[in-house]
Design a protein that fits this description.
transferase; 30% helix; binds S-adenosylmethionine; alpha/beta; single chain; methyltransferase; seven-stranded mixed sheet; EC 2.1.1.22
Length: 323
């Protein structure tokens, strides 16, 4: 399966992805589970989305609106952007976080899937030459091919040199469950979630975590659908709130919606040649945790000290919009 990558990975790598890969005799590999194979197939497609020229239109529709908002809210002519901390939970193969870091922001991606983590480590730390490697991401798709060659067509990656970030860039990836890793309050100026919030068993726990970790005055930028990942999984808690209900809960927490668009059409790891293609009608919002929180009518002093980095000069009038 990993032979789709031209440089073959050592077998140990596979064992780390799935400990059940070996039987008692570690030299004898057994068939991978359907679960592992599905994860592998979606990870391979994620290479197209994040690190190929073919993924450029998808990145324009999903990542660009988020990046534009970060630049609008923390413009480099008014902020020392190296001091603006941005967290990208559920970072996948890391392209969104990498692009934010490339602009000079202090950016951290967080991811818990071993498939994504091993793959992002590979692309971010081991790939240098542009379009040097080849994948066949659609080889498993036997239906909806107009031409046989559509199924076997290659994709080259990475479309950029991932190692081309300036030396002093503050960019990191952290492995682990978002809610477990990020328990420290008021650390982040911005949390950027893309196709992430529906991965929760209970999306309100994500809202709670994001509220907690944002500095007062910090912003949460979100783009994505609500395709709840645990909806049909046996023995898993799954609370499938509508966007309307999430929004109500966020307002009760104290979030102020500054930008809101309820219809941003995007794709996700789309096979542009397929006869079956999905379009997500995504929600996009920018919601701010107010800088001065009121508790029982009294200002919370603690929050005064942890505000986002001061702008170099005053922010432009009317930069916040409600749509
Ligand atoms: C639908 S993918 C989106 C990936 C990327 N943000 C993008 O837009 O391409 C959701 C990602 O969130 C990760 N994820 C799900 N639950 C997570 C959690 N509790 N902590 C960290 N990452 C998580 C998944 O492994 C997956 O890579």
């Amino acid at each position: 399966m990993l032979s789709y990558v031209q440089c073959s990975l050592p077998l140990k790598f596979c064992a780390a992805i799935s400990p059940s890969f070996y039987q008692e005799d570690p030299r004898k590999a057994r068939t991978s589970s359907t679960f592992d194979m599905d994860k592998l197939k979606s990870t391979i497609k994620q290479f197209v989305r994040d690190w190929s020229e073919a993924g450029q239109p998808e990145r324009e529709s999903c990542y660009k609106p988020i990046i534009q908002e970060i630049q609008r809210l923390f413009p480099s002519d008014q902020y020392d952007v190296s001091k603006v901390s941005v967290l990208v939970p559920g970072a996948g193969l890391g392209r969104l976080a990498w692009e934010i870091a490339r602009l000079g922001y202090a950016c951290q991606g967080n991811e818990w899937s071993f498939f994504m983590l091993f793959s992002s480590n590979f692309v971010l730390n081991r790939c240098e030459e542009e379009n040097a490697l080849t994948l066949y991401p659609w080889i498993h798709q036997f239906s909806n091919n107009k031409k046989s060659s559509d199924q076997t067509r290659p994709i080259r990656f990475p479309d950029v040199n991932p190692q081309s970030l300036p030396l002093n860039t503050d960019f990191s990836m952290v492995a682990g469950d978002f809610m477990e890793v990020y328990s420290e309050s008021e650390c982040w100026d911005c949390v950027a979630t893309c196709f992430f919030i529906d991965t929760a068993n209970n999306v309100l726990e994500y809202v709670d975590t994001i509220w907690n970790i944002l500095k007062p005055g910090g912003v949460w930028i979100n783009l994505g659908p609500l395709l709840y990942h645990f909806e049909s999984i046996a023995n898993e808690l799954s609370i499938e709130l509508s966007y309307e209900d999430i929004r109500t809960a966020m307002i009760k927490y104290g979030f102020l919606f500054e930008v809101e668009k309820e219809s941003m059409q995007t794709t996700y790891t789309e096979n542009e040649c397929s006869m079956l293609r999905y379009i997500y009608d995504c929600v996009f919002f920018v919601a701010r945790k107010p800088s001065e929180l009121q508790f029982n009518g009294q200002e919370d002093e603690k929050h005064q000290h942890n505000s986002p980095p001061a702008a170099k000069s005053s922010r432009r009038e009317g930069s916040n919009r409600l749509t």
